[in-house]
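Quick one: co-fold with guanosine-5'-diphosphate.
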Amino acid sequence: MSTPEIQKQIDDAIKDAVKGSGKVNVIVAGKTGVGKSTLINSVFRGELAKTGSGQPVTQRIEEISKEGHPIVIIDSKGLELKDYEKIISELRDEITERSQHHDENKHIHVAWICIHEDGRRIEEAEQHLCEMLKEKGIPVIVAITKSRSDNGFREQVRAALPSAKAVVSVRAIPEQIEDDGEVITLKEKGINELITETAKLLPDAKQRAYANALNSRHTASTKLKIEQAEREVNIAATAAAAAGATPIPFADAALLVPIQVGMLAKIGITFGMETSTTALTTLVTSALGAGAATLAGRTVVTGILKMIPGVGTLAGGAIAATTAAALTKGLGAAYISILTSFIEKNPGKPLDMDLITSELKNKLSFS
Ligand SMILES: Nc1nc2c(ncn2[C@@H]2O[C@H](COP(=O)(O)OP(=O)(O)O)[C@@H](O)[C@H]2O)c(=O)[nH]1
Ligand SMILES: [Mg+2]
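Sure, here it is.
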């Protein structure tokens, strides 16, 4: 393969990884002040719902989205008002219009209905909304917000909104209460459960985008990111094994490059990289060497071979299916461990791609 050919394959692999991740569209509805924006900012990375970032869609609905971020929030305001039916019908129209779109990235995938625990009331508005979403086939999670003590409210919600797939009590920000002069801090709660329950309702094809969007400060986010990244590695290893079914002459190891580049890009996306082609191209090419010319050579292969005990001795021969798979798995595992240790040390922080890239380079012991 010539250098321009390999460069094109690398570019295509990265574009596929970005485009293939798609968008996840979430309806978040509830009365004003129940804590919708706070919840969105806790669950997702990048202060998604910081005031003012929304674009009005209709009078009562706004769309919150951010460049390089795969989550789109459909936020509604005024569910507490007498004419709440107007919001429900605007939401219904929005769901219908989106569901008719040929592009699956427009569809609504899940809805959160937020109910304030303090009020201990389930309104007609919330019941009607839940029914409408059920009719439209949108799975619903009810988040009981600003939760302090449940006192049976969760059961009451379950009974009143039986079509909800899950009811989760959450506290999106810590709170201090005073009791007889003693200050007690109530920590955040329920966010991990909300993250996990939402993941269960999303199709497989959306799991990479969802993992990307999650704020790494929650343990459930880390878990989902690692699980998804491991799936990406297994898929790539299977593809590499297929490529190596006819043993690949060592000099042609570049055949594996697009598979491994795609895998690295997908793992990077899973862990929260901005989903932009340019950012990922920089990551991949600088991690794997100076660019297509180096990738075409033996550098990548020998670098990875060194990580796999016993395989290094194969040098000079051909790469067979098992070696191709092992190389790919080795590279994937190395990258996952670097990213995992970064987010565990820097929970909630954006990925420092320079640092991560240089750690990957070190691990692959390129000279
Ligand atoms: N104590 C406490 N306050 C919260 C919690 N979630 C939100 N808030 C506060 O409730 C107010 C309204 O929250 P906001 O997210 O803007 O509500 P929205 O109108 O539904 O988007 C803000 O002052 C938040 O800081 C929570 O879990 N506990
Ligand atoms: Mg809000």
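If it helps, The longest helix spans residues 219-243.
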